[in-house]
Amino acid sequence: MRIGILSLLQESNTFVSGTTTLQHFEDDLLLVGEAMGAALTGAHHEVAGFLVGLEQQGLTPVPLFAARALPYGAMDAATFSELMSRMFQQVAVAGPLDGYLVAPHGATVSASYPDVDGYWLARLRAEVGSLIPIIGTLDLHANLSLMMIDATDALIAYRSNPHTDQFDRGLEAAELMARSLKGEITPVQRAMFPPFVMNIERQATAESPCLELYRVAERLRQRPGVLSTSILQGFPYADVAEMGSAVIAVTDQDENLAVEIAAELSGALWNERTQFTATALDIDSCLNEIKHLQGRVCLLDMGDNVGGGSPADSTHLAHALVLRSIRKAFICLFDPVAVCVASEAGVGTSLTLSMGGATDRLHGDPLVARVRVDGLYDGQFTENEARHGGIVNFDQGKSAVVTIASGLTVMLTSKRIVPWSLGQFACCDLDPQDFEVLVAKGVNSPLAAYASLCSHFVRVNTPGVTSSNLSGFDYQWRRRPMFPFEPTMLWQA
Predict the structure, then answer these.
(1) What gap in Å lies between CA 26 and CA 68, rounded to an integer?
(2) Short-list 175, 159, 157, 150, CA closest to 52
(3) By three-state DSSP, how is residue 118 classified?
(4) Which pLDDT tens digit goes with each residue over 411-426?
(5) Contacts of 95 (CB under 8 A, 6+ apart)
(6) Burial letters for 444-474: b for 16+ Cβ neighbours within 10 Å, e otherwise?
(7) Does an H or E element contain 179, and which?
(8) How far is it, in rounded angstroms, from Cα 141 to Cα 387?
(9) What is the DSSP letter of 196?
(10) Residues linked to residue 456 through DSSP beta bridges, in sequence order
(11) Which helix (H) or strand (E) holds 31?
(12) Rounded to an integer, what distance in angstroms lies between the CA atom of residue 358 and that of residue 333?
C-alpha cells in the first residue's frame, strides 16, 4: 500500500509587520517528490518519523510535498497560492493512494485565508474522498479548528515543549495508519475548545502547571479504546478566531468515549486556567535576581522569541547588560549590515559598530559601542540530537563575533536564527562554558539545548511582538469571552 506524505510548517505571528514570502520557504525547506526523502531522512521531526514508521509497518511512503519556514508574519496571498498549487499538483500527479500522512503546523495564517491548515486539509479531503484515511501530526502550538478535525481521521499533537518528540509522533501516526488500513482500528476523533489562552511563559511541559495536565492526558490515553489524546496549547500571537487552547481525543470507533475523554481533558485545562497567566518579570527585576544565583544563567528574551516570529534583533537586554557591566555575557543579534561592516574591517580590528535595533523602536534602539572583531564565519552548523524543531542543518548566514569592553560578546548573524542548538557556538569558535550569562531569544524552545549548560533559566518580559504581556496586543478576531481577557467568564465542558 502507498501512503502520500504532505507537510506545511510555518507559525504565523500576525502582529509582525512583515510577511512570510516564498523566499522564506526556499531559504529553509521547499521540496517535492523524492527529493524529500534524501533531505529529511535522519532528521528528528515528524516527516522523518513518517518515512521510518511507514517502512517499519510494511507500507510504501510516497513523499509529495514538504515546506517549512521560520516563524514570522502571515504568508502573503501570492505565497499561499503558490504553495497550494505546488502541493496539489503533487497530489494530482501521484494518482490514487491508499492513505495520507500529513504534517500541518496548525498555526499557519495567510493574508487571504486565516486558517491555512484547515483549508488545505479540507481541500485534500475533498479531492481524495471520504474513504481514504488522512492521519497526521500537529505542532503543540496549533490553533486548532473544526475544519482540521472534520477533514482528518486522526490528529496527534506533539507532547513536549521544547518539541523533542516530533519524530516519535511521526512514528505514532504511521502506526495508526497501518492499523487503520489493516482493519484493526477505525479512528474517531473529537475536539473541545476551552476558551482560554495559555500564556507562552507557562507552556513548558516539564514544568508546572503543564506537567500535571500532561499526566492527566497520559492517564486518559491508557483507557481501553483510546488511541490518542492531545493538548493544543495554542499560539497567542496569531489573531484568528481559532486562537487558544484545545484538546483532541481519538478512540477506536467510539464517538461517545471520544467526547467523554475530550470533555474530561478540557475540563482539567479549564480548572487550571488561572495557573497559566504570566509572572512578567521586567529586565531590572531579572538582572537583580541573577546577582544572587550560583552557576550559569540563561536569560530568556521573551519579547524577541525568534521561534514565535520575532525579528531577532531586539537590543533591550543587550543595553541592560552593557549598562550594568555584566561580564562574561553573550547575546546573538540579527544584523546583516553590522556583519558586512565587521567583515570589511577584518579580524582584530577595533571600531565603533551599530548593532541590532533595525526593525523598529519596539525592539529597542541600536546598540552602538566600540568593539573588537574576534572572528568571521560562514554560520553553518549541524545538530545531531533531537532539539526543538527537529532540525539537523542550520544556516545563520555570514556571521561575526565581536566583544565590547563591558564584557559582552555579541554574535552577529546575516540570517534570523533560532537558539535551538549549541552548535551555534562551535561554528563561531566559541565555547558557551566561557560565559556566565547567556541570552537566548526564546521562551521554552531553547531549554532542550541549554539544559545541560545552564543552572538557571530566567524568563524576561522584554517588549516585542512576542511579549508575555498579552493585554498589550490589539486582538480583533479572538473568541469572546475568553480568559484571561474576560477574567470572570464561566465555561463548562
Answers:
(1) 8
(2) 175
(3) helix
(4) 999 999 999 999 999 9
(5) none
(6) bbbbbbbeeebeebbbbbbbbbbbbbbeebe
(7) helix 166-181
(8) 16
(9) B
(10) 297
(11) strand 29-32
(12) 10
75-133: pLDDT as tens digits: 999 999 999 999 999 999 999 999 999 999 999 999 999 999 999 999 999 999 999 99
Q: 203 is written with which cell numbers? A: 507552556
* Angstrom distance (rounded) from CA 10 to CA 216: 29
Q: How many CB atoms lie within 10 A of CB 431?
A: 9
SS3 category, 394:
strand
Q: Where do we find the cell 514570522?
A: 72
Helix then strand then coil, in percent of the chain rounded to 5, is: 35, 25, 45
Set of cell numbers at residue 480? 469572546
CB 241, CB 477: distance < 8 Å: yes
Grid cell 475523554 is found at 261
Distance CA 479, CA 269 (A): 17
Query: What is the distance between the alpha carbons of residues 457 and 445, in angstroms, rounded to a whole number?
Result: 12
Helix H or strand E segment including 285: helix 283-290
d(CA 314, CA 365): 8
Classified as helix, coil or strand, 292 is: coil
- The model's pLDDT over 384-443, given as tens digits with 9 standing for 90+, comes to 888 988 888 899 999 999 999 999 999 999 999 999 999 999 999 999 999 999 999 999
Residue with cell 491555512: 116
Burial class (CB in 10 A: 0-12, 13-18, 19+), 34: exposed
pLDDT tens sequence across 298-327? 999 999 999 999 999 999 999 999 999 999
Contact 261, 223 (CB under 8 A): yes
User: Which positions ≥6 away from 310 have C-beta within 8 Å?
Assistant: 13, 16, 303, 304, 363, 441, 464, 465, 466
Q: Which of 319, 323, 316, 358 is nearest to 464 (CA)?
A: 316
